[in-house]
Structure formats: C-alpha cells, structure tokens
Design a protein that fits this description.
Layout lengths: L1 H23 L1 E18 L5 E2 L1 E2 L2 E11 L7 E16 L4 E3 L2 E3 L4 E21 L3 E20 L4 E22 L4 E12 L2 E16 L4 E18 L2 E17 L1
C-alpha cells in the first residue's frame, strides 16, 4: 500500500515537474504574412468616402511569454501593419484636412496603420485536447490617412493614435499524436459610436517537436474591422480581411 502511494506521488511529481518545465520554457515567437482585402473608407467628418482599395500583403509578428507564477497573467505582444491604397470618383463634394475636392473628381487614398496589441491573459484550460485563454488587450493604434487629387496635386493628411482597451480570448483544439490543431483568437470592443474587432481562425501543423524547440506552420483567415467616430478628428469605417500563412517557434 505504501509503495503504491509512493509510486503515485512520484508519478504526480514527475508530471508536475514536466508540466512546469514546459511552462517555464513557454516562449512563443511567430510571424505571419497576410493577403489583405480592404474595403470601406474614411474622412475627417462623418461624411466618409469609400475607396476602391487594392489587395496588399501585410505582416504581423508576435511574442508571448507564459510562466508558472500563480495569479500573474501571461503576456503577449503582437504588432501588425495595415497599409493599402485605392482611388474613387467623387459623387459629391468632399473635404479632407481643410481641402475641398469637388464632385466628379478622381482622388487617391492611402491608409497606413500600425497596430500593437499588449495582451494580458490567463490560461483557464491547457491540455493536448483543448486550451482556453481569457484576458484583456490594450490595442495601440498609430495611423495616417492621405488623400490626393493627382490632377491638381491637392493633398491632405490626417494622423491619429490612441490606446483602445479590448476583451481578449483564444480557444485551441488539438488532435493528439498528429501535430494538427486549430484555434480561434480574437479581441473585441464596442462603446459609444466606436466598434473594433480583430479575430483570426487557423489550422496548425507542428512539424518539428524537440526538447529545444517546436516549429509550427499556420494557415488561416484574419479579419480586422475599424469603425470609429471622431478619434483625433478621424472618422473611418473600414474592414481588412484575407488569408494568412505563418510560422511559430516555441522554446
């Protein structure tokens, strides 16, 4: 009886030690390339103008650190670039940055947004079958919007920035012994006349699993919506979405 209890205790200790060792080494570094389809438009008033944006490749990089310290959240930082350009023929007069663009004029529009997520989260479940993370996201947005009339060389620029607090969650489902898994990750906020969301769903394949490093390929879909009213005198109703491919390293 005592030997059985001792063996059980030793087994639990070994499992706990292995789990803790993996958690201590829980550093995740990843990069993604994203084929982005952009729709919608912007203005410096609530009379926004839609642009016919081209498809562009954008990038995202992230690092996450998980630890065994109770009650302290894990940390993830994710940086995404959102850049696109397009054009439109105005159906009505349009003002931007103090400049007037008259109806029937073709204007070009450019969007340059850097988005950095500072995420604090807890792992509520974590095993080979299912894991569930829940936390908060402070999304820092730093953007510039440009409008130019090529015929007259009239142009304007508006910049905006701010930190947006958002709810964060991630669910991952795995198929043990196959290296395959799928996840859904997202952040969301809606208040007053602002609505922002950022979510992605992907299938993953871990093709290298060793004591030193795990390497995982990702293929999925990402969607970012930005619907803001009067943020630093900027009004925008835009959607960025498309497929992405990525690589993640787990140390």
């Amino acid at each position: 009886m005592k030997k059985g209890l001792l063996a059980a205790a030793l087994g639990c200790a070994l499992i706990s030690t292995a789990s803790q060792a993996d958690t201590i080494a829980g550093v995740y570094v990843g990069a993604q390339t994203w084929q982005t389809d952009t729709s919608g438009g912007f203005a410096d008033s609530n009379n926004t103008t839609d642009f016919n944006f081209d498809d562009e490749n954008n990038t995202s990089v992230y690092i996450a650190v998980e630890h065994p310290v109770p009650f302290l959240p894990n940390v993830k930082v994710n940086h995404t670039t959102l850049e696109n350009s397009g054009s439109t023929v105005l159906t009505t007069n349009f003002t931007f940055d103090g400049e007037l663009y008259t109806a029937n004029t073709r204007i070009n529009g450019d969007v340059e947004i850097d988005s950095t997520d500072f995420i604090l989260y807890y792992e509520l479940f974590d095993n080979d079958l299912v894991s569930f993370d829940l936390g908060i996201n402070g999304k820092y947005i730093d953007g510039s919007l440009f409008v130019i009339d090529p015929a007259s060389d009239t142009q304007g620029q508006v910049e905006f920035s701010g930190v947006v607090p958002m709810a964060y969650s991630k669910v991952q489902l795995g198929l043990p012994f196959t290296g395959l898994s799928a996840y859904f990750e997202g952040s969301y906020l809606s208040f007053d006349d602002h609505e922002l969301s950022d979510y992605q769903a992907a299938v993953q394949y871990s093709f290298i699993e060793s004591l030193a490093v795990n390497m995982t390929l990702q293929v999925g879909y990402r969607n970012v919506t930005v619907d803001i009213e009067d943020l630093d005198d900027v009004y925008a109703d835009m959607e960025f979405d498309g497929v992405f491919a990525g690589l993640e390293l787990h140390f």
